[in-house]
C-alpha cells in the first residue's frame, strides 16, 4: 500500500489536483490530456471536470481495476453507501473511473447503484499519469486472493464476460478539495483489493472541508 496524506500538521503542503497530471507515467516528454469518457461516450478532460466542481464540495475519485471485477464492485458500492447521495455544501462528490468501455461502465453503475459520476479510461491515460501499479505480481498473490474470497463472501460476483485490455491494472483513490485546489489523500493500490478503510477516506473528506455522516463511516 502506498498512501500519502496531506492537510495534517506534520504533512507536506497539499498539491493541486492538476499538478498530479503534470508528469507522464509513460516516461514521455509531454503528458497526454487526462481524457475520460462518459457513459454516452463523450470525451471529458478530467482535470477540467474537477476544477469545475463547487469549492465547498470535496471530490472523492476512485480508480477501479475494471468493470467486471468483484473487488471493484465491492469498493465502489461501499464508497457510494458511505459517502454518496448527499447534497449541499460539504457533501462530497463521487467520481469513479474504470479502464473499460462506456457501455461496461453503464452496466456496472446500474448493477451496484453507484451514487456518483462514472467515467471510462480505456487507454489508461489517467492511471499511468498517476503511476498506479500494474503487473502480474500485483494480481496473483496471497493478499489479493484473500480479498477476492472476502468480496465473494460479501455477495459481489465476478463478471467473467467483461473483457478488458488491462487485466493487470490496479487503481487507487484521490480526495481533493472542491475545484481541485488541494489534494488531501493519494492512495496507490499495491495489489488487487488493496483498498483503504472508509474512515481514512472520510477523514480526508473532512480535511478537505467536507462533512461525513457519522452513522455511515465507522471510526
Characterize the structure shown.
The chain has helices at 46-51, 70-83, 102-112, 125-129, 142-153, 198-207; strands at residues 2-5, 35-37, 43-45, 59-64, 93-98, 117-120, 172-176, 183-188. It is an alpha/beta fold. The strands form 2 sheets. The protein has a 6-stranded mixed β-sheet. Strands 2-3 form a two-stranded antiparallel ribbon. The radius of gyration is 16 Å and the shape is globular.
Considering the chains and any ligands shown, give keywords for the structure.
single chain, 219 residues, alpha/beta, six-stranded mixed sheet, two-stranded antiparallel sheet, 6 helices, globular
The succession of helices and strands, N to C, reads EEEHEHEHEHHEEH
Low-confidence stretches: none
Q: How many strands in all? A: 8
* Oligomeric category: single chain
Distance between the termini: 20 Å
Principal-axes shape call: globular
Annotate the secondary structure layout.
Layout: E1 2-5, E2 35-37, E3 43-45, H1 46-51, E4 59-64, H2 70-83, E5 93-98, H3 102-112, E6 117-120, H4 125-129, H5 142-153, E7 172-176, E8 183-188, H6 198-207
Parallel strand pairs: 4-5, 5-6
Antiparallel strand pairs: 1-8, 2-3, 4-7, 7-8
Describe, in short, the structure shown.
By secondary structure, the chain is α/β, with parallel strands linked by helices. The chain contains six helices and eight strands.
Amino acid at each position: 500500500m502506498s498512501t500519502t496524506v496531506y492537510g495534517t500538521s506534520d504533512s507536506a503542503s497539499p498539491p493541486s489536483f492538476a499538478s498530479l497530471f503534470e508528469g507522464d507515467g509513460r516516461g514521455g516528454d509531454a503528458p497526454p490530456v487526462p481524457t475520460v469518457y462518459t457513459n454516452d461516450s463523450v470525451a471529458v478532460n478530467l482535470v477540467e471536470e474537477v476544477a469545475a466542481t463547487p469549492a465547498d464540495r470535496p471530490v472523492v475519485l476512485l480508480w477501479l481495476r475494471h468493470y467486471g471485477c468483484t473487488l471493484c464492485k465491492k469498493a465502489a458500492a461501499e464508497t457510494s453507501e458511505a459517502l454518496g447521495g448527499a447534497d449541499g455544501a460539504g457533501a462530497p462528490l463521487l467520481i469513479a473511473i474504470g479502464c473499460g468501455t462506456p457501455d461496461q461502465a453503464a452496466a456496472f453503475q446500474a448493477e451496484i447503484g453507484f451514487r456518483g459520476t462514472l467515467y471510462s479510461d480505456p487507454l489508461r491515460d489517467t492511471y499511468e499519469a498517476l503511476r498506479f501499479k500494474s503487473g502480474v505480481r500485483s494480481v496473483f498473490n496471497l493478499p489479493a486472493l484473500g480479498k477476492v474470497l472476502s468480496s465473494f463472501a460479501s455477495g459481489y460476483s465476478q463478471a467473467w464476460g467483461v473483457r478488458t485490455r488491462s487485466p493487470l491494472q490496479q487503481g487507487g483513490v484521490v480526495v481533493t478539495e472542491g475545484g481541485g485546489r488541494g489534494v488531501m489523500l493519494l492512495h496507490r493500490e499495491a495489489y488487487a483489493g488493496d483498498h483503504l478503510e472508509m474512515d481514512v477516506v472520510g477523514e480526508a473528506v473532512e480535511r478537505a472541508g467536507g462533512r461525513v455522516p457519522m452513522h455511515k463511516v465507522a471510526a
